[in-house]
Design goal:
Elements (H helix, E strand, L loop, with lengths): L5 H9 L5 H19 L2 E3 L2 H16 L10 E5 L26 H9 L2 E6 L33 H8 L6 E5 L5 H7 L2 E4 L19 E6 L2 H11 L34 E5 L9 H16 L3 E5 L7 H16 L18 H12 L2 H14 L4 H22 L5 E5 L15 H5 L6 H6 L3 E9 L2 E9 L4 H14 L12
Parallel strand pairs: 2-3, 7-8, 7-9
Antiparallel strand pairs: 1-3, 4-6, 5-6, 5-10, 9-11, 10-11
Helix pairs in contact: 2-3, 7-15, 9-11, 9-12
The structure holds glutamine (GLN).
Amino acid sequence: MIERSLHEMAQALAGKEISSVELTGLYLERIARHNPLLNAFLTVDAERSLAQARQADERLARGEQTALTGIPIAHKDIFCARDWRTTCGSKMLGNFVSPYDASVIERFQAAGAVLLGKTNMDEFAMGSSNETSFYGPVRNPWDSTCVPGGSSGGSAAAVAARLSPAATGTDTGGSIRQPAALCGLSGMKPTYGVISRYGMIAFASSLDQAGPLARSAADCALLLNTMAGFDERDSTSLDRPPEDYTRELASDGGTQPLRGIRIGLPEEFFAGGCDQEVMQLVEQAIAEYRKLGAETVVLSLPNMRLSVAAYYVIAPAEASSNLARFDGVRYGYRAPEYDDLNEMYSRTRAQGFGAEVKRRILIGTYVLSHGYYDAYYRQAQRIRRLIAQDFAAAFRQCDVIVGPTSPSTAFKLGEKAADPVQMYLSDIYTIAVNLAGLPGLSIPCGFARGLPAGLQLIGNYFSEAKLLNVAHRYQQVTHWHQARPDAFA
Ligand code: GLN
């Protein structure tokens, strides 16, 4: 059962081969067995999940199910879920029980999916390894001495170890795609504005976007159908007609289903700096795409080299503003001892935030301050515009851009923790996509020294259905996405 696609699970539920209570129980049991090692889940509440599963079974009995009714889904602990502890990986929200549901959670509830638990993450989604979580690091199911990537590392580890059929994540600079790559999964960040950010704890509001983490592109398409949609409670949510993101997957394209698709290969992605074995796997995947009928075009994204620098001005600037609300007054942690109001604020924030979050708040406050705003923040915004223009030019020459997702496979726990710049470079191939607001997807393309490598596909605005189809065609002729780490049979 745990190897079935979401669509097959839905069929098994509809055909009474298994009930949602049994399916949920199966995953809860796997979580109980494996989570002590992996630390992928921060909160599990078996009784509440099983109660939802019973409701789903009643809905199935009435024949009123959707494509996800009765299927357990794990959610990154950045999404507020009513009456569930929602920590965002921080001590600051260690005791915060949300009084309301995020839009994403609401949509899964309305579809009848079962909330399986809340997953571990880097504190306030700041990180690439899950090591900044106040609740301890997550381990990679492929090698428990390695990181799962971040910041959606708990979601990625949970799905890779088959502790959940699928999960949600968020991606500000790569946090869905990079953990998907490091854990052998398929993960998508949609076009900015496609999924509502309402109830998703804000890190850098102009970059944050939710998305699915699953075993295949087809599963991602099903999840996106539930997650996407206009929401008036998010002022950046896009009011567009609903789409069926699975619509291109079913058609039989013959032996060359990607004939007519032009794949852009940016020089900058292939210029060195990437692990050689990972690069070989990416090259092999490109060769596979040629067999599927796609043409390749070499092109350039000349300003991409500035993306990490621009991101580490813009993201901290927005974070310093967003995180001002954690002041010990309204919710969350408050320092136990203080003499006056100022001391209450400063002790609360000194004690409640971890080192990486403080570093970002300091950088952000600095780049926004009088006298530095023009030198840093305004300059970074200009670079952001140039990067978006590079992509616009590239998409006049191609339909999809392809390259590596991450410059390496999963690294060892502790390996980069002491060196923030090395950690920041983990997102060198993913960050430009967020700056431009484009959709991006990572899919597994093989193994280097026993660890999964990711292939990144980037599309033009609103090309999610096409991107998912391009990923799906590759998955129809390869088996990398079906591999499972041995220890989690
Ligand atoms: N690793 C990047 C950072 O630390 C991106 C994180 C994310 O996408 N949430 O900011």
